Amino acid sequence: MAAVPEPDEPGKRKGSCTSLRLSYWKPFKLLGILDVENIPCARDSILYGSLGSVVAGFGHFLLTSRIRRSCDVGVGGFILVTLGCWFHCRYNYAKQKIQQRITRQGMKNKLLYEGTHLDPERKQNSRNSSN
Amino acid sequence: MATPAQLGLQNATSPIMEELIAFHDHALMIIFLISSLVLYIISLMLTTKLTHTSTMNAQEIEMIWTILPAIILIMIALPSLRILYMTDEFNKPYLTLKAIGHQWYWSYEYSDYEDLAFDSYITPTYFLEPGEFRLLEVDNRTTLPMEADIRMLITSQDVLHSWAVPSLGVKTDAIPGRLNQAMLASMRPGLFYGQCSEICGSNHSFMPIVLEFIYFQDFEVWASYLYIV
């Protein structure tokens, strides 16, 4: 909702809630396409890639003193390190999601079946007591 | 549903949509890296003083820029095909629901329950309650049980329509004279909105879809209530 301008400030309008909300919600995207804030593992991959790029490029320059070739090595290092971190992180993320799903299902089943004849812990306890 | 000025995909409600979002992230990262490489090469081309006007052959570079894109395409195609076949998997469905497209509303038939069918028209703007969404609300929501496999049979009575719910990762064409099958499964309760996605006349933008996923026992109560009504 826009505020009504004060009488002594005819041209000045205060920011509206809608415009502030839109600017708050607008995500930052690298090259306008990669939403590093919301995509899991994107931020870490890009940061590690940048570090790898700097290390590779600078290291190559220190060894060879060739500027253009060092820049090429830096870009190549960025791509390789980013890809490597990305696949590694996404693989672990997928494993974690599966584990979360199993745990969530297990918790729900425990709540549902606790104390009933379908409770696996009850069956195990009765087997242990009979042994 | 989408938030204002949203550009990305909606949050996933079904496992298929989760897979689609993961695949989208994977493809986007590859696109980002290729774009960065191309931008860098362009900057190199623009800043070099070297020229070479008599290139006859360049076997090595040609090998690289043939094999590398082939590898990238395989890296994109394999997860894509995996999700494609996963979408076509049909586990034993708990419920079958028919969605029939008309000009310009959807009708739903719960064939597993005798005589359970209704039409779903858009709620006009002047009838909206505070907090309801313009052009997305309907008079009769499609109520379904959560955490159950639901088979959708989608067809049309007149012209082409398309039954789409983005957060479930479903978009299936409604073709007159043809039954298309889709599987739904929601992992959480709530309201999920969609809109007709095939041009079908003047009111194509005004035939939304609202799915209401509720708990199993509440769904049974709802179905029995509709019988009484």
Automatic annotation (TrEMBL), chain A:
<dbReference type="GO" id="GO:0033617">
    <property type="term" value="P:mitochondrial respiratory chain complex IV assembly"/>
</dbReference>
<keyword id="KW-0472">Membrane</keyword>
<keyword id="KW-0999">Mitochondrion inner membrane</keyword>
<keyword id="KW-0496">Mitochondrion</keyword>
<keyword id="KW-1133">Transmembrane helix</keyword>
<keyword id="KW-0812">Transmembrane</keyword>
<comment type="similarity">
    <text>Belongs to the COX20 family.</text>
</comment>
<dbReference type="GO" id="GO:0005743">
    <property type="term" value="C:mitochondrial inner membrane"/>
</dbReference>
<dbReference type="InterPro" id="IPR022533">
    <property type="entry name" value="Cox20"/>
</dbReference>
<dbReference type="Pfam" id="PF12597">
    <property type="entry name" value="Cox20"/>
</dbReference>
<protein>
    <recommendedName>
        <fullName>Cytochrome c oxidase assembly protein COX20, mitochondrial</fullName>
    </recommendedName>
</protein>
UniProtKB/TrEMBL annotation, chain B:
<dbReference type="InterPro" id="IPR002429">
    <property type="entry name" value="CcO_II-like_C"/>
</dbReference>
<dbReference type="Pfam" id="PF00116">
    <property type="entry name" value="COX2"/>
</dbReference>
<comment type="function">
    <text>Component of the cytochrome c oxidase, the last enzyme in the mitochondrial electron transport chain which drives oxidative phosphorylation. The respiratory chain contains 3 multisubunit complexes succinate dehydrogenase (complex II, CII), ubiquinol-cytochrome c oxidoreductase (cytochrome b-c1 complex, complex III, CIII) and cytochrome c oxidase (complex IV, CIV), that cooperate to transfer electrons derived from NADH and succinate to molecular oxygen, creating an electrochemical gradient over the inner membrane that drives transmembrane transport and the ATP synthase.</text>
</comment>
<keyword id="KW-1278">Translocase</keyword>
<dbReference type="InterPro" id="IPR036257">
    <property type="entry name" value="Cyt_c_oxidase_su2_TM_sf"/>
</dbReference>
<keyword id="KW-0813">Transport</keyword>
<feature type="transmembrane region" description="Helical">
    <location>
        <begin position="27"/>
        <end position="46"/>
    </location>
</feature>
<keyword id="KW-0999">Mitochondrion inner membrane</keyword>
<dbReference type="GO" id="GO:0004129">
    <property type="term" value="F:cytochrome-c oxidase activity"/>
</dbReference>
<dbReference type="InterPro" id="IPR014222">
    <property type="entry name" value="Cyt_c_oxidase_su2"/>
</dbReference>
<keyword id="KW-0472">Membrane</keyword>
<comment type="similarity">
    <text>Belongs to the cytochrome c oxidase subunit 2 family.</text>
</comment>
<dbReference type="InterPro" id="IPR045187">
    <property type="entry name" value="CcO_II"/>
</dbReference>
<keyword id="KW-0812">Transmembrane</keyword>
<keyword id="KW-0679">Respiratory chain</keyword>
<keyword id="KW-1133">Transmembrane helix</keyword>
<dbReference type="InterPro" id="IPR001505">
    <property type="entry name" value="Copper_CuA"/>
</dbReference>
<dbReference type="InterPro" id="IPR034210">
    <property type="entry name" value="CcO_II_C"/>
</dbReference>
<dbReference type="InterPro" id="IPR011759">
    <property type="entry name" value="Cyt_c_oxidase_su2_TM_dom"/>
</dbReference>
<feature type="domain" description="Cytochrome oxidase subunit II copper A binding">
    <location>
        <begin position="92"/>
        <end position="225"/>
    </location>
</feature>
<dbReference type="GO" id="GO:0016491">
    <property type="term" value="F:oxidoreductase activity"/>
</dbReference>
<dbReference type="Pfam" id="PF02790">
    <property type="entry name" value="COX2_TM"/>
</dbReference>
